[in-house]
Task: structure prediction
Amino acid sequence: MKRRALLGISLLMNTSLVFSQNRIKDEETDVVVVGGGIGGLTAAVSCREKGLTVILLEKMSFLGGDSLKSGGYFNAVTEEAKRNGTDSIELFKKQIFESGGGFSDKEVVSVLAEKSGESLEWLKAQGVKFMPAPRHIYGSLWNRAYKPLMPSGTGYIQVLTNNCFKNNVDIRTSSKVIELLRHESSEAIIGVLVEKHGMRYEIRAKKGVVLASGGFGANKELLKRSSENFFGLGTDSHPGATGDLLPLAEKIGAKIQNLQFVECVPGGDERITDPVRLDYDPGKIIFVDENGDRFVEETSPRSNIFEKYKAKQIKHCYTIADSKAVESVDLMRRKHLYRGLYSGLAWRKDSLDELAECLGLNADRLKKSAKKLQNKGLLNQPPYWAVKVVFRIHTTLGGLCIDKNAMVLNVDGEAIRGLYACGQIIGNLHGRNRLGGNGLNSAVVFARMAVETMSKNSNDNLQF
Ligand SMILES: Cc1cc2nc3c(=O)[nH]c(=O)nc-3n(C[C@H](O)[C@H](O)[C@H](O)COP(=O)(O)OP(=O)(O)OC[C@H]3O[C@@H](n4cnc5c(N)ncnc54)[C@H](O)[C@@H]3O)c2cc1C
Result:
């Protein structure tokens, strides 16, 4: 039986035969995890909790992916919020599904909403420390985004990486997965082909392969093929976000969906690495066009804001905030904002009239636009700030279809044995819009679910 399985692999892997002179020894483990962002690290730690051996492969020379760059906001419906009546699973599900415009899978959405709270608790138990109260962030539609004490995504990556080392996870950086190995007769996914410094080798996975390899926000070619709308925009993604696993999964029959949906948020042009933004709390700012008029409800879903901006062919868009709103921006981002003041990307003036004058806006129209917040006692604390809004790519929303157990589906909608996915590579979760704060949680929830599913099939050795 084993001989037949091994023959199956080598027949499938033409590439591995071609490069046989550069091969190093093949290996075997219970689980292979592809990607070293929050999804991959969560999957690896969860494997060790279940007593499974695991090898984590990361193509870059460092861990973190987009997770490290992220703002760190993690949407969760906690037991406390349920008890207080300030939030509910039903509301969260409804908001995800409706803002996704019918392009997401209801069952997958339900899992995210239902498991977000316990995943937040799991992260706390791992050692990630959070601020006590949740926040309403840009595009989150509700007050449920929890922020770690450490800046950006550093808290998650540091804590989970340490736990991987403590628990003997075999982490390999500069190790790129270039092929998924499929069993010839059962068609289960039984491992991966890895390339490291020009050498190739196979790792067989007895229990499964978890794809946690992120999105494709840094792959200009794939973005261009997905939709013309995003051509030429800058990107927030890290350079490794190239969607490598999508063609590999497609080759073994996986279903891919929603590649045309790409989330764009205010940031800056292609040259900017640290966006200068004021819109983190959408309830405290206004967006105005080149005339000083508001053109969109600032608290609406991210996709609506970008679509309105595109549809109205706005020449210049500015975010306006007062000093109180700026003080509530976290330190790291406030630093970028102050840098913006000196590099001509942000402005600060003592009155709205002066701000209008320096931006070339109509002062009366700007003051009329400000009334929306001023009537609620906001946007009235000088000095006033403005930044120029240039939308850029933030997250890709398309990718692999999974079921509620985090198993990857084939084009006929059946689960592919041995293949799991979590995080930004999932394509049937967010639909046409991702709620702000629903990136990191989707990685943690489905990484844990993948390992849960694998451990339920504990007698299943995919190699036979
Ligand atoms: C600037 C910014 C701010 C954000 N802020 C938030 C926020 O506040 N809250 C939120 O919920 N979401 C946020 N997001 C989105 C969030 O960061 C992502 O949705 C999330 O980090 C995805 O996690 P992941 O583990 O799926 O992928 P990643 O963290 O991107 O990890 C994927 C890893 O896989 C590796 N990889 C890719 N291909 C291969 C291969 N062939 N072989 C081996 N390794 C491979 C990559 O190099 C990468 O390290 C933000 C994104 C950005 C860019």
